[in-house]
Amino acid sequence: MTAQTLYDKLWRAHVVREESDGTTLLYIDRHLVHEVTSPQAFEGLTLGERPLWRGQSIVATADHNTPTVTQTEIHDLVSRLQVETLSQNCQSFGVTLYPMGDRRQGIVHVMGPEQGATLPGMTVVCGDSHTSTHGAFAALAFGIGTSEVEHVMATQTLVARRSRTLRVTVDGTLPEGVTAKDVALYIIGHIGTAGGTGYAIEFAGEAIRGLSMEGRMTLCNMAIEAGARAGLIGADDVTFAYLKGRPYAPSDAQWGQAVTYWRTLHSDEGAVFDKEVTLSAQHIEPLVTWGTSPEMVVSVTGQVPDPRLEKDLVRRQSMERALIYMGLIANTPMIRISLDKVFIGSCTNSRIEDLRAAAAVVKGKHVAANIKLAMVVPGSGLVKAQAEAEGLDQIFLEAGFEWRHPGCSMCLGMNEDRLSPGERCASTSNRNFEGRQGTGGRTHLVSPQMAAAAAIAGHFVDIRENF
Ligand SMILES: CC(C)[C@H](C(=O)O)[C@@H](O)C(=O)O
Ligand code: SF4
């Protein structure tokens, strides 16, 4: 048998029917649901009097609109309606919901894996672009639109077309102070936000193998920011150790059998990819985005780039526009950029390891006077509880951070956590688009360590030297 890529293996295992033009009906194992993209889907089912095909495949939670200061009441009417509608729909369709206030509630891409709902070999969908996160478990996972949410609910299948395969290999080990987030930003800086368009990206190599499951999730989370529909990492002992004992993971009796299968979930030696990119971990530094796209990224030791040095007219104009929006002047050293707010959270970087890393940086120090708000928003109730059990909340509070309830929060500001126009924020999230964190807000994407250090210094700092 010819050598197969991991993507091929996952794809082939789920084909229900393939048309001659390549259009494929794919079986879906796990359907994650949140309040933003599910209301019309449930409504469609209701109107069409169609039941769920396999309601047990669905795990639902409220995340985008949940308030983070208290979780007792939602003041914003639209937010409240979305969250309440989800609860009503889950109740009438008999869907498992982890609602606001439940310890297991959280950002769908944090709480899902935490519950073991994402397992190697699965197809996983969610009406959310960052579903690529789940590819860290050697699962074929991608975001879908609301009408597709309804289709999956009604049929347990999705109409899809095969992606091309791109393998990004990161050789060597990561230098001190360099995290999975920096790897993600480095790759996007290298291949561009369109570099992965039409591809499923498999991340491979020693540096990737060396990442924890949390780091792998951070990386796959941002595959979508490189233009790819899915990110993938082969399953190994790190994957299995993370999953063991989680509520949705196979029971002890079936565990051995599952692991035997999961061990086959990697690209075979000699498998051929449509495209290959090889990078060296040694060249990766702590990174900061300077513009309004995740590919606009530089080393923290670098400076704001100068559009005048860019020969490509389109690129130059987009750089100029980004600099105006960001209120930055070309050639300013990144460490001279001072900040107004710091956000540690989002499905990219709000897991326990992220919070531990940030807490280690802030311990015994205090947030700088120019920082109006530094906030930590754990990715789930269980992450929050774990952090509190370890005393991390106290470290953050004593340093002057706010310690919040879980949710998407200021990653996109669907709740009340937003930047005001002109405010500049160091954020551990994944998108720095114009207005992403609030109209006129300016976002710089960084790792949790870098965000924590920036909160203490009041401006960006190289964590390798100063902390
Ligand atoms: C609201 C949701 C549909 C959206 C997404 O698809 O990614 C959001 O999570 C985001 O990060 O922009
Ligand atoms: S944390 Fe941000 S990126 Fe992740 S699902 Fe929520 S809004 Fe989207």
From TrEMBL:
Residues 8-458 form the Aconitase/3-isopropylmalate dehydratase large subunit alpha/beta/alpha domain. GO terms for molecular function: 3-isopropylmalate dehydratase activity; 4 iron, 4 sulfur cluster binding; metal ion binding. Pathway: Amino-acid biosynthesis; L-leucine biosynthesis; L-leucine from 3-methyl-2-oxobutanoate: step 2/4. PROSITE patterns: ACONITASE_1, ACONITASE_2. Its EC number is 4.2.1.33. It catalyses: (2R,3S)-3-isopropylmalate = (2S)-2-isopropylmalate. Pfam families: Aconitase (PF00330). Keywords: 4Fe-4S, Amino-acid biosynthesis, Branched-chain amino acid biosynthesis, Iron, Iron-sulfur, Leucine biosynthesis, Lyase, Metal-binding. SUPFAM superfamilies: Aconitase iron-sulfur domain. Its cofactor is [4Fe-4S] cluster. InterPro entries: 3-IsopropMal_deHydase_lsu, Acnase/IPM_dHydase_lsu_aba_1/3, Acoase/IPM_deHydtase_lsu_aba, Aconitase_4Fe-4S_BS, Aconitase_4Fe-4S_dom, IPM_dehydratase_rel_enz, IPMI_cat. CDD domains: IPMI. Signal peptide: none annotated. One of its GO terms (biological process) is L-leucine biosynthetic process. [4Fe-4S] cluster binds at residues 347, 408, 411. Binds 1 [4Fe-4S] cluster per subunit. Heterodimer of LeuC and LeuD. Belongs to the aconitase/IPM isomerase family. LeuC type 1 subfamily. Catalyzes the isomerization between 2-isopropylmalate and 3-isopropylmalate, via the formation of 2-isopropylmaleate. This is 3-isopropylmalate dehydratase large subunit.
